Amino acid sequence: MARRPLPRILTNSAPLARMAHSASLARSREFARSAADSASDVFHPLITIGRGLRRLGAAARGRWADTPKDQRGPLAFFVAACVLVVWLVPYGPLLALIGVMGAGAWAGRERTPVVTGPSEAETERLRALYEALVPYLSAEGDPSPLYAHGGDWERAFAEYAFDDSGRLERLQLKYPAYFTDGEDRSRVRIEQVLYAKAGRGREYRFAWDELANQLTLTVLDALPTDIAAQRFVTSPGETVLGFTDPDSVQRTLPVTGGEETRDAPPVVWRTGQRSTEPHLLVLGQPGTGATTLLRSIALQALQHGDVLIIDGSGTGEYGCLVGRPGVLGVESGLAGALATLEWASHETERRLIAGNRARQAGGAAPDDTRRPLWIIADRPTALSHIAVAEERDDPQRWLQVPLRHGRAAQVTVVVADQFETAELLSDPVRAHTKARVVLGPATAEEVRAVLGAPPHTTPPAQVPPGRGYARLGNAPVLRLQVPATPDPLDDATGQAHREAVTALLPEHTAPADGAEPGEPVTGGKRMDVGKAVAAGPSVRAEGAEADDGPPADEGPAAAAAAPEAKESGSTAEPLGASTRVRTDKGGEPRVIKGSVEAVRTEG
User: Fold this and answer.
1) How does pLDDT run across 540-571, given as a tens digit for each residue?
2) Which residue among 40, 124, 199, 293 is the one 20 to 30 A from 59 at the CA level?
3) Does 286 carry a binding-site annotation?
4) Which residues 6+ apart lie within 8 Å of 472 measured at CB?
5) Helix (H), strand (E) at residue 247
6) Alpha-helical runs (H) found in 220-333
């Protein structure tokens, strides 16, 4: 039987296409969509309550299934008793219905899914970091390598965190036990890889835990640079070198930064008889804040002691201290520096002798030996170079006694110089300055050469003035930001900083008769450096007899008066070329009389 052909409307798709794209059908679809949206908005509370009741019912069934069979009877009895009590209470069923609907609405609300784990971009960063560490943390023959190409990075990275911009903020990784974490070269290689892959331009801290075979990388915030010179809350013998990270020290000080007062973690250097690092050495590049640090130390030292300043650069950076009470002298020339340091050397000897005699007599040390004396030498190598050219003594030679015996005599030496001339520093300066500071841009090798240990942080992208590292003895290396203490006499100094420094300076003392304004004064008396140098080696502070010696506050001016006292018939013998101090095996200083050459040969 022959089939009858289908109607044309069923075989031809053109009419159907026209119907599908007709305007009436489009309006119908739009109306249906609007009606569905309106109905969804109207019935949304009911949908939410229904979803919540379904979840509560599923939770109740799960709780019933988890309940042991021997406890189902008491549980059913308890539920029935609750239902009976609710039924008997006035308005109980209505309140129960309202409570069930509220619980259903709360349980059926739409919850934003909690994002767990890193995003896709963060995952790619971690995977790239893992692959970069594979050549350095893997070894052939490892049956279960922690680091392998295409391996699981989640096994190696225990913790990780990203900031809002998607950059790595913290990372704790594990490394194999056979990795040589005790060698600095191996550590530096891993730190360089992490620094390159985690993103340059920020400072990172690397904390190695050799016991647990873990390395923690942390991004450090920039140290504050708005802290200016001010009175710090410290006890006598404590000097604030600067400020560091909060988790590096266990102490904070109230400071004023800008217009607010806050607590900041300081780097406190302790001096005195019980100090293990009685002297300080500062090295850095020109313009990195070494003079600023020395000026800050001088202002703090003037609170409880006397200060003697040697300005080897000769730029007048310490002119604001001239004529101030407690400032024994500010010398920038070779002749004045030699005379001043020679006096300081023999003043240290005098203090040792006076203190030793007082202890032998069973009494306390004299007051003039207990007041701290600070010797601040800025770029002494510049004067050493001039001394070699003029065939004169090296000024650093007179620092030997204060460096060796300064702790017992309450004498503190602070030396600052530049990297280019660091090899010109004398051996006593290098040996006795256990507190070290490095300022300005420096490589890890340079920091290690000065501080004795490499820094555990990466160098900053931009180094502000006064930024560097500090290490006190065998303590860890700390980041350091020196408080802003510019020269108030400099025209480039801002008004706020000028007022801050000026407020810390003692008031000017009246110059002695015949002294011109601007000349160095010491303790209110004029210091004639020319006479002190012309007097030669006989210019000494009297120390053989502690009772007849000059007062400590007369400073270097007493050195020039020693020969006159001898000619006038004074019984006190000056501690000059024929009198020296030597420490015996018991550690007590004793006087040795004789020629200088004999003493040098003997000791």
Assistant:
1) 333 334 334 444 444 444 443 343 333 333 33
2) 40
3) yes
4) 267, 269, 277, 434, 435
5) none
6) 290-301
